[in-house]
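Could you join me in thinking about how sequence relates to backbone shape in a protein? We need material for that, and I hope you will provide a protein of your own picking. Label the sequence line and the structure token line clearly, so we can match residues to local backbone shapes. Would you write everything just below, so we can both look at the same thing?
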Amino acid sequence: MTRRFTFFSTMIATLLSMYSMSFAQESPKYKPTVESLDRHPLPQWYAGAKLGIFIHWGLYSVPGWAPLSHPGHDFDSKDYIKYDPYAEWYYNVMRIDGSPTQAYHREHYGADFNYYNFAPVFNRETKKWKPDQMAKIFRDAGARYVVLTSKHHEGFTLWPSSTHNPTLPADRQHAERDIVGELTRAVTKQGLRMGLYYSGGYDWTFVPGPIRVKEDYETVKPQSAAYGKYASAQIHELIERYHPSVLWNDIDWPKTGNALQVEADYYNAVPDGVIDDRFGIAHSDFTSPEYQKLDKISAKKWEECRGLGRSFGYNRAEGEAETIAPGELIALLIDIVSKNGNLLLDVGPEADGTIPPVQMERLQALGAWLKQNGEAIYETTPWERAVGKSAEGDDLRFTRKGRDLYVTILGSPKAGTVTLPKFSLDKQSKVSMLGEAKPLGRSDKDGDLAVTLPANLPGKYAFVLKLEGSIR
């Protein structure tokens, strides 16, 4: 009995040793070079997802305020930083003399109130947060993935990082709850993908600033060896603990932090993950314009990020006037998708995780529209053109899936018909409207296709015609 046990134990140990040696000798699939990283294919889940939810949530959510300025996000304006509409930049702007944010802070908290003293308040408020409820809201809105700010520019982390910040007291470094972990589990339970944002380019606990003028944008980026080591350690924590499906860095990456190695390590840990274009190197899975649309179809995948209002973080001053209207939001998504993009739509929760009512209304309207019309959005690809006009003057957007073409009418149709100029369709091809059970009447005249619309249109905001088998 003993000999047999010893024999089998030795054999198992030998096999394990051989397996370990083989595994160790096997080189990682991705190496820290642009050439290697560029071989990473865009995952189909991301290409087809079309809609993600961005969440800006942190210490700035406690004061939750920014001036209602710069509605067009004219970033190059000389006074943009002083009147910054981004509430997540509260700590930076409260230190600029004469700024509205500084005046607000002094009025409500006092001139000597340290920003990081918001940490105990944030921890108290987040005890009320219900991650499963939040994740369901995002699923019901039609999102396919979520991206959470694990650390914004002020350096406070939403997970219990084991990487010590040498500049902050222990009780001011991170949230008491593992918000990253809890939301990751809740989002995954809802069948969505979970991604994480990390501010690598700015950390105001290492180089505090403030940023006052445009020239400061570069000088405030920490580049010390200590910060490079710190940022690399933290982002590797996120990769190893949570395996995010999206790794969304912001601003830049410290030159001392080896961005190429970070991205290679990420792909080797999460092969079907995606990386944005803000690491400061010549590789990305997608580009990330901010509050900006594209004019035409892009061959490279892109993702517009924007808030429901003018701010990403919660701004209690924002109301209906500052929040995108439901019809505009739906038209925005349709336009982006028609040009090979995704929309990363931001919500700014209050400190306790509550999504403001004005934002909830938009999410609900978007979810209701997608429930009926998502077939024309999810898993589609661009057609030969994105934009068109009907003979009646309707604004149209096009997407395709297989041999089917989807023609989306933005807003209410201008007539009882929609005529597609110079558009031929096989006689056996079926024309229908999503949300309407019966096929639609059609006529082909002088090379134009005229579709008769239902007397009672299903839904509102935008209406989708499906032309089955119309693409050869």
Q: What stands out?
A: The domain at 381-467 is CATH 2.60.40.1180 (Immunoglobulin-like). The mean pLDDT is 94.
